[in-house]
Write a structure and sequence with these properties.
Glutaredoxin, alpha/beta, seven-stranded mixed beta sheet
Length: about 190
């Protein structure tokens, strides 16, 4: 009886693993195709040969529940780390807002995470001053622990996370996320 229960669990584990492995290619990103599709500011996008796992540390709205990257599983996510005191972040943020407006859907989302020393009121003031109202006011509420665990060394830094929850590309510094080069690249990535 014990052996039968063990065999059944083993078989279910194999079937489950097989189903996952069959599903992953639908979400797989070919690094060479992605590199070849880069142009303009997207030439700064570093595409990893092998996807990298992401942290399970929390972040969230100032007064909201904790979130993790697992909450975004099943969609492509552009994750931008920024700060209110960062001039390139101020320059870049409207283009991230425009990217969300252009391509935001059930399969794609832009999220922005204020990291380091940013009070909730300063974050809200920052977004109001640049007239961005369609991006979440997420915060790295642990004084940069979330950003550090994601390997963020400078601001702004933008990661692209696949539906499988792994990072496959990163851009350090600001970029024009709403220009034709970025829209074309992201559109190819997320499909119709």
């Amino acid at each position: 009886m014990l052996q039968s229960a063990f065999s059944r669990r083993w078989m279910l584990a194999l079937v489950y693993t097989g189903l996952i492995l069959c599903a992953i290619p639908a979400f797989a990103v070919d690094p060479n195709n992605l590199r070849a599709a880069r142009s303009g500011d997207m030439l700064k996008l570093v595409v990893h040969d092998t996807p990298k796992p992401v942290t399970d540390l929390p972040f969230g709205l100032a007064d909201g529940p904790d979130l993790t990257m697992a909450d975004f599983a099943g969609k492509y996510v552009v994750v931008n780390f920024w700060a209110t005191w960062c001039p390139p972040c101020r320059k870049e943020m409207p283009s991230l807002s425009e990217l969300q407006t252009a391509l935001g859907s059930d399969t794609f989302e832009v999220i922005t995470i204020a990291t380091l020393r940013n009070s909730p009121s300063k974050v809200a003031q920052f977004f109001a001053s640049i007239k961005v109202d369609n991006l979440p006011l997420y915060m790295d509420r642990n004084r940069g622990a979330f950003a550090r665990s994601m390997g963020v060394l400078g601001l702004p830094t933008t990661l692209i996370i696949g539906p499988d929850g792994q990072e496959f590309a990163r851009l350090t510094g600001d970029a024009h996320w709403s220009d034709a080069d970025a829209i074309t690249l992201i559109s190819k990535l997320i499909g119709p």
